[in-house]
Design the sequence.
């Protein structure tokens, strides 16, 4: 199917993905909560990330590992999960720190998940994107 995404939409999609991952990492940091990953999974799968089919699929790889984390997927547990799946790569810990530091608002994980899904649908020619507000 023909891709119908502008360059601006592509970058906005990446920002939504980063915001979602950062929000999940932050929300999970109390060590007790899996709410953000559980709710995000209702809307998003690893295939919805822009880097899914790329050689270095860091964002989709993070989301995939978050799904399978038995414990809340905060930075330490995510690194442990990636390692147990033989998916931990050089630079991953730094990227997790960056996602946490640049997350606009950790309480908006559901909005970010919906944005990731809408951009994915646009990228695959399924619908136009109508995202309210900015990230």
Sequence:
């Amino acid at each position: 199917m023909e891709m119908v995404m502008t360059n601006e939409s592509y970058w906005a999609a990446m920002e939504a993905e980063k915001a979602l991952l950062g929000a999940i990492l932050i929300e999970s940091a109390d060590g007790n909560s899996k709410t953000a990953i559980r709710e995000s999974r209702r809307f998003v799968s690893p295939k919805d990330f822009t880097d899914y089919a790329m050689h270095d699929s860091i964002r989709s790889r993070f989301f995939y590992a978050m799904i399978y984390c038995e414990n809340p997927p905060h930075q330490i547990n995510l690194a442990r999960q990636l390692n147990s799946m033989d998916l931990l790569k050089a630079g991953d810990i730094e990227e997790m720190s960056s996602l946490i530091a640049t997350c606009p608002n950790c309480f908006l994980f559901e909005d970010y998940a919906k944005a990731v899904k809408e951009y994915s649908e646009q990228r695959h020619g399924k619908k136009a994107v109508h995202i309210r507000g900015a990230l």
